[in-house]
Design goal:
This protein is of the alpha/beta class. The protein has a single domain, classed as TIM Barrel. It contains 15 helices and 13 strands. The protein has helices spanning 17-20, 27-46, 49-54, 72-85, 97-100, 109-124, 140-144, 153-167, 180-190, 200-224, 246-259, 261-266, 315-324, 346-362, 407-418; strands at 2-4, 10-14, 90-94, 128-134, 173-178, 229-241, 273-285, 292-295, 331-335, 367-373, 394-397, 402-405, 420-422. The strands form 3 sheets. It has an 8-stranded parallel barrel, surrounded by 6 helices. Strands 1-13 form a two-stranded antiparallel sheet. Strand 11 (394-397) and strand 12 (402-405) form a beta hairpin. Helix 8 packs parallel to helix 10 (200-224). The radius of gyration is 20 Å and the shape is globular. Bound molecules: beta-D-glucopyranose (BGC). The site of beta-D-glucopyranose has 11 residues, from loops. Residues 16, 19, 178-179, 182, 235, 335, 373, 380-382 line the site of beta-D-glucopyranose.
Length: 423
Amino acid sequence: MKYEFPKGFYWGAATSAHQVEGNNYNDWSEWEHANSARLAKEAQTHWQDWQKKKFPEMFEPENYISGRACDHYNRYEEDFGIAKSLGHNAHRFSIEWSRIEPEEGKFDEKEIEHYRKVIKALRARGLEPFVTLWHWTLPIWLAEKGGWLNKNAPKYFERYVSKIVASFSDVKFWITLNEPAVYTSLGTIKGTQPPGNKSIFKAARTRANLIKAQKSAYNAIHSISDSALVGVGNSANFFIPYKNKIYNKILAKIISYLEGGFFKKIKKNIDYVAFQYYRSIEMGFRLGGNFLGIIENNLDTGGERTDLGWKIYPEGIYHFLKNLQKYNKPIYITENGLADAKDEKREKFIKEHLYWVHKAIKDGVDVKGYFHWSLIDNFEFVEIRGFWPRFGLVEVDFKTQERKIRPSAYEYAKICKNNKLEI
Ligand code: BGC
């Protein structure tokens, strides 16, 4: 069967600065140094046996220090060359705030020049840039002032955003914030990633400031550029009620509602939907242990799993896309991917997700692009998993920095080049 995508569809992959660039100095790099030994120790109890056996790197503290990462800061031309050879016509990356404004109110023109070259390198290869302005990391000076807890944080963000947008006025697609809801829940409620708080009050303040930041950044961008389009990276898990019990159905509905809450607050201040999808999670009450447990990584619930134990559920993307249709805005899938070091599941994963994306388009949803996460293996961010989860279309040897294109990347390339999925 052949599934043709609309003309002008954007095909690409995504990265974020701190995960690929190397040698960043920000609140995450500080946190990594302070917590790497603890994270290496906790890996003993956190993971399943098969994961521990397959990825012994998880017991090394260095796994949790981003350090040189993929040295993409120096190798972006090589990496974009690979993306072009794989038929991509767009690429999503992020600008590192801590490089641009290492001291409060002082912009580093050399770093602005660096990103100017990055954008030029993309354009020279026919790759449309989708530029994320904030992908979770903060400059140290801002972190010291409390980061997103500071009441002036939205103003600081607006100042940085205005500087960047004025400097790169030819960029059309901006993503102001990446997954603000995930950042808030993992960083300020669960505390498993920077800033590492466990406080509902701090979460509420962070959330309120992020919402404010989005509104003011949106207005600022439009006052500077006529052609800019602004989105917010918004991810969602597809919650499946555990054992299909009625009370778990209700619970799953409530959790989905809460998960979508941030999006509803900013829906007027976006020009397009930047949607990110990875997996489904069993959701339910269980007896013993926790009273209320999110049953994830729990293999007795079956299904195909990624190296991180995430359950693969391609159909989920269709339901989200259909649901997003009511906002009447174009949709770009700005992340979708899996940790799969051996590249055993990636081809099928991509094809099955794209099958459901295509079905959504056929059923009237205005999806205009797809970005696989990620172009290259990198420093996995969510709850600081580090280097062992391999999300890349391209494998990276972190010792030699050698790049090796994975077989699935060639399969994805066929789809990109033909603007068509064949299965
Ligand atoms: C984040 C990425 C991350 C990916 C895989 C997304 O939520 O935006 O930074 O690497 O998920 O976990």
